[in-house]
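Hey, can you fold this one?
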Amino acid sequence: MTNRNYHIVLFDGHCNLCSGAVQWIIRRDKKDNFRFASLQSPIAAQLLKNIDTQALNSMVLVTPHQMLTESNAALAIARLLPFPWRWLGWAGLLLPQGIRNYCYRWIAQHRYRWWGQKKECWVPNPALQAKFLS
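Sure. Predicted structure:
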């Protein structure tokens, strides 16, 4: 990897919704802004030193300047993608953060029941392996 400062997306590697979201982001990440790691990985433990990653119920976006969770992470990711996702990321900020996060937590609470979960973390194919931190 180069000295470039990537935005790191930490996701629940056991969650089908989360793995699907990562694949969705990868397909739209034309500027190669993102790198990924599961919340179950040593990388996540290192980046989130004082946070129990097993109890974390959110995708996390780690940028060179900040760490975002819940709806703030999702909207920041969208703003780094091309049109129309960038616009939707900005438009989402019009909703109060409390309402956005309530909806995010509600979906997160039900994600295993609705989308299922894997016993093992999703493993990307060799073509995508460079986008994942290990």
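The two ends are 12 Å apart (CA to CA). Let me know if you want another pass with a different chain boundary.
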